[in-house]
UniProtKB/TrEMBL annotation:
InterPro entries: Secre_tail, WD40/YVTN_repeat-like_dom_sf. This is T9SS type A sorting domain-containing protein.
Amino acid sequence: MFDNLSDPFTGAINAQAPFINRRRLLLNELVTAIAVDGGNRKWLSTRTGLYRVSPDGSQLLETFTDDTTPLPLRSISTLAIDPLSGRLFVQTANGIISYQTTATDPADALSSPTIFPNPVRPDFTGSVGITGLTDNATVKIMDAGGQLVYETRSQGGTAAWNLLDYRGRSVQTGVYLVVVVTAAGTEGVAGKLAVVR
């Protein structure tokens, strides 16, 4: 991690290895590729796997290894992210694979959010995506009675909801209101989401 981001080509640069839980991140690992997603999270590939790290490098958010995924991760040579879709492309010796991340580049201003899938059908097991957001926007999911069901913040221009309420229970069939407010609290938009169980 570098602490002189204003002008890295002039002046002093202080590089430090990030520490997570008092251990140096990727100790003795050769990093083969780096990509940054719309939420400013870092994707790092090594000879042993693929890692997603928080924007400041202080948290290891996700780990993919040969033991945890069927993806061929031992020979990653290049990482690239599509800023509009948030899809991470991973080039290996065996070809290119992709993974749908939960962050896209943020919008300059809020407009009507895109919510997908909509409606959520009974056989759906993933997370609902909400795109077209500004960075770090507050996203509130409310039921038809106006009760808050879930709240999160956008990662770049996207927020994800796993269809669970604050207590970890699956939400019921119904129409849900998705309210989005910018980080500064100066703009807001809303959309609707139908869930069929």
